[in-house]
Specification:
two-stranded antiparallel sheet; single chain; Arc Repressor Mutant, subunit A; 12 helices
């Protein structure tokens, strides 16, 4: 095992075993290196790597701390990675969305408060009668993020949020090229909202599946055509 990986594993073990909790300050570099049997250089590399994935927070002139370790913070790195993927790889992200978003929507129909449901209805009401594609997609992202938050599962919400980036261009492209896409999106959003309002989790899940599957199937067909690359961002 590379020395840096060993150092990462040892720091991770201190966190997992509860020796270092969220917000804890790491011991001085020299003391920690001696205690873990590591060189100071390998310890520095481990700290740098763990700070990149938001496990540690290096504060100049203050020290190094364990972050809050909240799912939204740790899963932020996923969004950074998936933003690099384009073309048919986007289909894989849509496939994952098709698994996660219906589950979140089902939970939202059970767990959302009346105030949160009113907020969801408010998001739909903000969209004018003839929105631009960009406005529709922005509203679509807010709509789904609100539902994900309403699922009451922070990990699920963070995963869905991380997948939003690489599928945004696909949603815009669909709106620009597929006849009836705007009308269909609005109708399906309305159906999802109504199912959540009625506290019908199975119906909410079914409509969410239909909604995400429609984008996925359109993109699958589009990428199978002669011009199979997504337009540039």
């Amino acid at each position: 095992m590379p020395v840096t990986d060993e150092a990462i594993d040892k720091i991770k073990a201190m966190i997992v075993q509860g020796e270092l909790g969220p917000g804890s300050r790491l011991p001085r570099e020299a003391d920690l290196a001696e205690r873990l049997g590591l060189s100071r250089n390998s310890l520095r590399e481990a700290v740098k790597a763990l700070s990149l994935i938001r496990v540690l927070d290096v504060r100049q002139g203050d020290g190094t701390y364990v972050t809050s370790l909240e799912p939204a913070l740790l899963l932020d790195a996923i969004g950074f990675v998936v933003d690099f993927h384009q073309d048919d790889t986007v289909l894989q992200f849509l496939e994952v969305r098709r698994v996660l978003e219906p589950a979140a929507t089902e939970l939202a129909a059970i767990r959302m408060t009346d105030a949160e449901i009113a907020g969801l209805r408010g998001i739909l009401a903000e969209l004018g009668e003839a929105p631009t594609i960009e406005a529709l997609v922005a509203n679509d992202l807010r709509f789904h993020n609100h539902i994900a938050a309403g699922s009451g599962n922070n990990v699920l919400c963070s995963l869905i949020d991380s997948l939003s980036g690489p599928t945004t261009r696909a949603r815009i492209w669909r709106g620009l090229t597929q006849e009836g896409a705007v009308r269909r999106t609005r109708e399906q959003h309305e159906a999802i909202c109504e199912a959540i309002e009625a506290r019908q989790p199975e119906a909410a899940r079914a409509w969410a599946t239909v909604h995400v599957s429609g984008v996925e199937q359109w993109l699958r067909n589009a990428l199978g055509g002669p011009e199979s690359a997504l337009p540039p961002a």
